[in-house]
Amino acid sequence: MVKNYEAQTECGKISDEELELINRQSLKKLSADDIYTFSVILCDNEIDRDFEVFSDEALKNLEKLFIGKTGILNHSNRSEDQICRTYKTELLCDSNRKTEYGEDYKYLKAWCYTVKSAKNEDLIRDIESGIKKEVSVSCNCSEKVCSVCGESICEHKAGKFYGDTLCFKHINGVTDAYEWSFVAVPAQRNAGVTKSVSQKENTHSQIQKAKTEKDLSFAEQYRNEMKARAQKGFSMLFPELSSETADCIINLCNANILSELIGSFEKKTAKVFPVKSQFGERKSETNDINSQFKF
């Protein structure tokens, strides 16, 4: 599974503690002058564009699994495209910020290093200037749980509303982290599911769009019901009109006019086709003197 995020780079001086962590990953002992470090936000617990979200459990697992993993370019499988390595990770919580579904915002931050060399001069310049920002993480997960019913296999569709509840999938059961990559554009679907969730505003606008689509679906359903009632009125009171002509008239009417038209049709129909009892009219009493003895 591959997910894309917008990296938040943070470059600074290397402490002795960090240098020790870096040297755990290298074969040769490196000095602070040999290396360049930066940090990225790999993933978080916000709803992404495909309406999926890393669970707390998944983020905790990834915090351990990403230590020592390589950073590459465009998910390339070539060793020459390896550009850095992760030496430290930390799962952080921002209680002042809430996710779209009301939880405290949590994100996985990673610290990485690369070697200062002529080959990496352009890479370092791109990182510092903000050119390289989008980050895609590649990992393995075994389960996605529905936010509506809590099941991993169900008929609810991600991104749709069921009542007032938005359906999205909690990613659970992360068992391995493969690598993370700088990407120029959102990665495409290859071996796994590709995500692009670089900005919270994009996710928010999609949720608002889903809400709007929900409202529109109800409005469309209501209008279709009104059109059907109006069509019925035309067919009963004006049988000489074709259904195509009636449709043309109905489609020109807004909701208020349709409502007035239907009300008029129903009143007229009640007069033209009065309701009759299924038992028929009761016959008047006769003066037959023997009627009381008849059954």
Provide a brief overview of the structure.
The strands form two sheets. Strands 1, 2, 3, 4, 5, 6, 7 and 10 form an eight-stranded mixed β-sheet that branches.
What would your notes on this structure say?
- By secondary structure, the protein is of the alpha+beta class.
- The protein folds into two domains: 2-197, no CATH class; 210-272.
- It has six helices and ten strands; from the N terminus they run βαββαβββαββββααα.
- The strands form two sheets. Strands 1, 2, 3, 4, 5, 6, 7 and 10 form an eight-stranded mixed sheet that branches.
- Strand 8 (161-162) and strand 9 (165-166) form a beta hairpin.
- Helix 4 crosses helix 5 (243-251) and helix 4 packs parallel to helix 6 (255-272).
- The longest helix is centred in the last third of the chain and has 38 residues, at 200-237.
